[in-house]
Amino acid sequence: MADESKKWVLMVTAQTPTNIAVIKYWGKRDETLILPVNDSISVTLDPDHLCTTTTVAVGPSFQKDRMWLNGKEISLSGSRFQNCLREIRCRAGEVEDEEKGVKIGKKDWENLYVHIASYNNFPTAAGLASSAAGFACLVFALAKLMNLKEDQGQLSAIARQGSGSACRSLYGGFVKWIMGKDESGSDSIAVQLADEEHWNDLVIIIAVVSSRQKETSSTSGMRESVETSLLLQHRAKEVVPKRILQMEEAIKKLDFPSFAQLACADSNQFHAVCLDTSPPIFYMNDTSHRIISYVEKWNRSEGTPQVAYTFDAGPNAVMIARNRNVAAALLGKLLYYFPPQEGTDLNSYVLGDKSILKDVGIEGLNDVESLAPPPEVKDNIPSQKYKGDVSYFICTKPGKGPVLLSDKNQALLDPETGLPK
Ligand SMILES: Nc1ncnc2c1ncn2[C@@H]1O[C@H](COP(=O)(O)OP(=O)(O)OP(=O)(O)O)[C@@H](O)[C@H]1O
Ligand SMILES: C[C@@](O)(CCOP(=O)(O)OP(=O)(O)O)CC(=O)O
Q1: Strand, helix or coil at 137?
Q2: How far apart, in whole angstroms, are the C-alpha atoms of residue 273 and residue 222?
Q3: Distance from the CA of 379 to the center of ligand 1, in angstroms?
Q4: For residue 248, how far is its CA from the centre of ligand 1 (angstroms)?
Q5: Stretch among 120-124, 196-200, 367-371 having the lowest mean pLDDT
Q6: CA 129 to ligand 1 center in whole angstroms
Q7: What InterPro entries does UniProt report for this protein, alphabetically (predicted)?
Q8: Would you say 271 and 311 are in contact if contact means Cβ atoms under 8 Å apart?
Q9: Residues 102, 7: Cα–Cα separation, whole Å
Q10: Is 236 helix (H, G, I), strand (E, B) or coil?
Q11: I need a labelling partner for 222 at 20 to 30 A (CA). Which of 7, 85, 267, 301 fits?
Q12: Would the pTM count as exceeding 0.90?
């Protein structure tokens, strides 16, 4: 290794997307290694709208491993962080930086500490899978810094040990997490089914539903389901294996009706498993249920599915529209039912790809107020509005996998000190 009295810091910055499962992971067969009871399939979301940026650094002056999340120092003592760090360190390779005169041998990594700074461009722990993007980014960035020779699949097996769903964020587009059979977990990895260009008609609208922080984390919720739900056993053994094959086929053929039918059914079954858990777990709320009814009614009135919905362990709705025209119509309907609270401006109510607003013909709040009631419900139920029940919407699309950011200005750590900027 280079002269330790010399001050040097080597850094890598990466950006990693989050993902939403369309066939859900719910239940572990091994809690420590995070091995699931069934395969799952997800769509990676566009990192322009939802992503984690992480800078990792190494330097001889660092006294211990440290991490800052969204500007605040957090502890790395938890077993999930420790497992990821251990798995990466033991695979670290040689690194040479001629410019800085630094040479790090394989063995040197055991005596070097890392600094990690990470930033989520969306709310952390709000049910938007920050842990998925976060752990995937941590593993991806450290693997680059430490020159791991492992391929993306092997990296996904390390990210999996931070948070199960994180393994799917190592790729863009459509991703399958293969549950694997091996007790070591070596075959429980993510693979890409299709890249983000494959089905580029799809548009995704997320309704972030107002709620208190969730009472049951995914980790403890799925543990309770494994212990008490018979439906979970049936789902993992009989239902998901068939659905996985059908979903793969639907994605391959760009078959939206099948895709939507499978995604909605799987989300509903996952929430049924939560209800079948003792004591029952309620992740969705009245707003979530309303959104399901609106989408179901609209799909039925059109004769073929226009929009798929899916809900993770929380009340937020993720809606996947078959194309941009449908997404614009969907956003119009959603804004009709869930207008913003007084004092909220449109700019902070619709986030992400705001250009869809123009397609709906909405330029300001006045236009939202004058939206016509969706025709499919006019005669059936009074079209009541639920002002303030949605915190905000995010318009996005399927996106790419992790990338390295070479622009030094995007680094979150100071290149001289290795401390947050
Ligand atoms: N950028 C990040 N880097 C590393 N770890 C992160 C990052 N962001 C979040 N995490 C980890 O994930 C935890 C939050 O996970 P949690 O499952 O509670 O919320 P979520 O992933 O946002 O929501 P959900 O799992 O319901 O979709 C944080 O406490 C932290 O440990
Ligand atoms: C409902 C889900 O979002 C559950 C995600 O669970 P996590 O990956 O957050 O759980 P841990 O592995 O315990 O960290 C479905 C999914 O993403 O497949």
Answers
A1: helix
A2: 9
A3: 43
A4: 28
A5: 120-124
A6: 6
A7: GHMP_kinase_C_sf, Mev_decarb, Mev_diP_decarb, MVD-like_N, Mvd1_C, Ribosomal_Su5_D2-typ_SF, Ribsml_uS5_D2-typ_fold_subgr
A8: yes
A9: 10
A10: helix
A11: 85
A12: yes
User: What is the DSSP-derived secondary structure letter of residue 46?
Assistant: P
Report CA(321)–ligand 2 centroid distance (Å). 23
Query: How far, in Å, is the centroid of ligand 2 from the Cα of 165?
Result: 5
> 401, exposed or middle or buried, with CB in 10 Å at 0-12, 13-18, 19+?
buried
Residue whose Cα lies nearest atom 12 of ligand 2: it is: 164
User: Residue 122: which pLDDT band, with cuts at 50, 70 and 90?
Assistant: confident
20, 242, 278 from 274: Cα distances, Å: 18, 21, 8
Q: Are strands 114-120 and 66-69 parallel, antiparallel or unpaired?
A: parallel
Interior/surface letters 142-181, b for 16+ CB within 10 angstroms, e for the rest: bbbbbbbebebbbbbbbbbbbbbbbbbbbbbbbbbbbbbe
pLDDT confidence band for 381 (50 / 70 / 90): low
Instruction: Tell me the ligand closest to 28's alpha carbon.
Output: 2
Q: For residues 90 and 107, what is the distance between their CA atoms, to the nearest angstrom?
A: 9
Which of 218, 268, 283, 310 maximizes ligand 2 atoms within 8 Å of its Cβ, making it the mutation to test the pocket?
218
- Any ligand 2 atom below 6 A from CB of 18: no
**Residue-wise pLDDT tens digits, 123-145:** 777 778 899 999 999 999 999 99
At 91-105, the pLDDT tens digits run 999 999 999 999 999
Indicate which residue's Cα is closest to atom 12 of ligand 1.
131
